[in-house]
Design brief:
This protein has 363 residues and is of the alpha/beta class. The protein has 15 helices and 9 strands. The protein has helices at 2-20, 36-43, 61-75, 94-104, 151-161, 175-183, 187-190, 210-216, 218-221, 227-231, 233-240, 262-271, 274-281, 290-299, 349-360; strands at 25-31, 47-54, 82-84, 166-170, 193-197, 247-250, 304-314, 325-328, 339-347. A 9-stranded mixed sheet has the order 3-2-1-4-5-6-9-7-8, with helices on both faces.
Length: 363
C-alpha cells in the first residue's frame, strides 16, 4: 500500500510538471518577404505563429505576400494565416525618393524603388517591378491564398482576441503597425511587446571581408539612416508616438558582426527537416543576419551583450536627414511623447548561431 501511495504521488507530481510547462509564445511576424527568420520561428516548438503580415519594403506587398505563401507551402506550414498589408508608405514614394536623391545624394538600397546599384557590388542587380505587376516567382507560385483582410485589421483582431499575449516581430517598414494604431487607439496598449529590426545608431564594420565591408559602407557617412525606417519615415514616427507596453529595437549596429556564411548555411540545413533544409540551401550567403537577430533576442534575451535604454523618434522633415533615427538620454529628450525602447547594440553571435540550430530542430 505504501508503495502504491508513492507511485500515485509521483504520478501527480509528474502531471503537475506537465501542466506547469510554459505555454507557447504567441507572435505575429510583420515583414516584406520570407527568410530564415520566418523558418526559425515557425520550426521552434516554443512559438505559436498566429499569422504573418506583409508590407512593401524590399519588395512590393503583393510580391512579399506571394513569397510568404509559397514559403509556407514549401516548409509545410500551410495553416498559418497570411494577411497582405500596405502597398504604399504613408507619404514617401518612388518619385519623392528620386527627388531626394537628386538633392542629397544616392541611397545605397531603395527596396521596391530600386533599379540599379550606385556602384559595383558583390550582389547582382535587383529585378525591378511595379506595385501591381503580376507575380511569377522563380521557385513556383503559391496555391495558398491570403486572407481577405488587410494586415492592420488582422493585427487588431488577433491582438484583441489575445490581449497582452501577442508579440509582434516587425522586420520591415512600420506602415502596418502605424495604420493599426490609427484605426484602434487601444491597439498598442493591448500588444504584449514589439521587437523591431530597424533604425541605426552608429554601426561599425566588424568582419574583415569584402561582403561585410559592402554592408558597412552605407553607414560611414550616414550612421543614422537605415532602410526599413527610410522607406516610410512617417509610419516610423507614428509608431514612436504610440503607447506600446514594451519595445525592443534591433538597429543595424549588431548586424555588422554577423554573416550568413556558406558554412553556416550548411550547418543550419543539416539541423532542419528535409523540406526546410532544401529552402535553406537555396539562400544566398554573404548577408548580415538582420532579421534573425530580432527573432533570436526575443527567444533568448540573454544573447544580448550590450544594450541601452533610449528615447527615440525619426526625422520626417524632407531634408538631408529625412528618415534618420533620433535618440536621447533621459535628460535631453524633447518630452513630446517620443517612444522609449531597449536598443540592442551587441549580441553573442556564437551562442545565437547555436540557438538557430536548436530552433530548426524544434528545440
Amino acid at each position: 500500500m505504501r508503495r502504491l501511495l508513492v507511485i500515485v504521488a509521483l504520478l501527480f507530481a509528474t502531471l503537475g510538471t506537465v501542466q506547469a510547462a510554459e505555454p507557447r509564445r504567441k507572435v505575429i511576424i510583420d515583414d516584406e518577404g520570407f527568410a530564415l527568420m520566418h523558418l526559425l520561428l515557425l520550426e521552434d516548438r516554443r512559438v505559436n505563429v498566429l499569422g504573418i503580415t506583409t508590407v512593401s519594403g524590399n519588395a512590393w506587398a503583393n510580391r512579399a505576400t506571394a513569397m510568404v505563401l509559397r514559403g509556407l507551402e514549401l516548409s509545410g506550414h500551410e495553416t498559418v494565416p497570411v494577411a497582405q498589408g500596405a502597398t504604399f508608405p504613408i507619404l514617401n514614394s518612388e518619385a519623392r525618393t528620386e527627388r531626394w536623391e537628386a538633392l542629397y545624394g544616392k541611397l545605397v538600397w531603395k527596396g521596391a524603388f530600386m533599379k540599379q546599384w550606385a556602384e559595383p557590388t558583390v550582389q547582382s542587380a535587383p529585378d525591378y517591378h511595379g506595385p501591381f505587376d503580376a507575380v511569377d516567382l522563380p521557385w513556383g507560385n503559391p496555391k495558398l491564398k491570403a486572407l481577405p483582410e488587410a494586415a492592420a485589421l488582422f493585427m487588431i483582431r488577433t491582438v484583441r482576441a489575445n490581449p497582452h499575449q501577442v508579440t509582434i516581430i516587425a522586420c520591415g517598414p512600420l506602415t502596418n503597425l502605424a495604420l493599426a494604431q490609427r484605426l484602434d487607439p487601444e491597439f498598442a496598449l493591448l500588444v504584449k511587446e514589439v521587437v523591431l529590426m530597424g533604425g541605426s545608431l552608429n554601426p561599425q564594420q566588424t568582419l574583415d571581408n569584402p561582403s561585410a565591408a559592402q554592408f558597412a559602407r552605407e553607414f560611414v557617412n550616414s550612421p543614422r539612416r537605415e532602410f526599413n525606417i527610410r522607406f516610410d519615415p512617417e509610419a516610423a514616427s507614428m509608431f514612436a508616438h504610440a503607447p506600446w507596453t514594451k519595445v525592443t529595437f534591433v538597429p543595424v549596429d549588431p548586424s555588422t558582426a554577423t554573416q550568413l556564411t556558406p558554412a553556416l548555411v550548411e550547418q543550419l540545413a543539416k539541423a532542419a527537416r528535409p523540406p526546410v533544409a532544401a529552402m535553406i540551401r537555396k539562400m544566398e550567403p554573404g548577408f548580415p543576419m538582420w532579421d534573425e537577430i530580432a527573432a533570436a533576442v526575443w527567444l533568448d534575451p540573454s544573447l544580448v551583450t550590450r544594450q541601452q535604454r533610449l528615447w527615440y523618434d525619426f526625422n520626417v522633415q524632407f531634408g538631408p536627414s529625412y528618415g534618420d533615427m533620433l535618440t536621447w538620454n533621459d535628460a535631453y529628450r524633447p518630452g513630446l511623447d517620443e517612444g522609449a525602447a531597449d536598443m540592442v547594440l551587441a549580441v553573442d553571435v556564437g551562442r545565437m548561431e547555436v540557438g538557430f540550430v536548436k530552433s530548426l530542430r524544434g528545440r
